[in-house]
Specification:
Helices cover about 75% and strands about 5% of the residues. Helix 1 packs antiparallel against helix 2 and helix 2 packs antiparallel against helix 5. By secondary structure, the chain is mostly helical. It is built from five helices and two strands; from the N terminus they run H-E-H-H-E-H-H. It has a two-stranded parallel ribbon with strand order 1-2. The termini are far apart. The longest helix has about 30 residues.
Length: about 160
């Protein structure tokens, strides 16, 4: 059976695999939670928030694909299965049912804040292990911080 080899030494590969897998879980859960909020938001700011949430979903899905493909390129196997997400997510979860627009803003601010904190930790962890992976994580973090700002500004 063939395998993708990594240009990294085993210690650096482990750092990269951990950072990319954590980012993948965060991004996939973000896309699912944001879509859940998109479907269930109600209130005076429904339309603008509904549309804004879809942009976050699209960005999270695009970034998740980038992270998973980077992992494979570095000889690591990404795991985006639902069971993996369920047991390893650190993302705050939404309440079920309809969500008032104010609750969505508060919840999404917390969700994006928690993810960007972990992404910044991954950026720092990958600095020496693989600067190219770090660059990928920096770009994603910048995007997530922009969405955090745009949601938080609605409080």
């Amino acid at each position: 059976m063939s395998a993708i080899t990594s240009p990294l030494n085993p210690e650096d590969k482990k750092v990269i695999a951990t950072a990319l897998q954590g980012a993948l879980v965060d991004l996939l859960d973000l896309s699912l939670l944001t879509k859940q909020a998109h479907w269930n938001v109600i209130g005076h700011n429904f339309r603008s928030l509904h549309l804004q949430l879809d942009k976050i979903v699209s960005a999270a899905r695009k970034h998740a694909d980038t992270v998973a493909e980077r992992a494979v390129a570095m000889g690591c196997n990404p795991d985006g299965r639902g069971s993996t997400l369920a047991k390893s997510t650190e993302v705050p979860q939404l309440e079920p049912g309809y969500l008032n627009d104010g609750k969505v803003v508060a919840a999404m601010t917390d969700i994006l804040g928690s993810i960007t904190r972990r992404m910044r930790e991954r950026v720092m962890a990958t600095e020496k292990a693989d600067p190219m992976t770090q660059d990928v994580l920096i770009e994603i973090t910048q995007d997530l911080e922009k969405y955090h700002w745009m949601i938080e500004a609605q409080r």
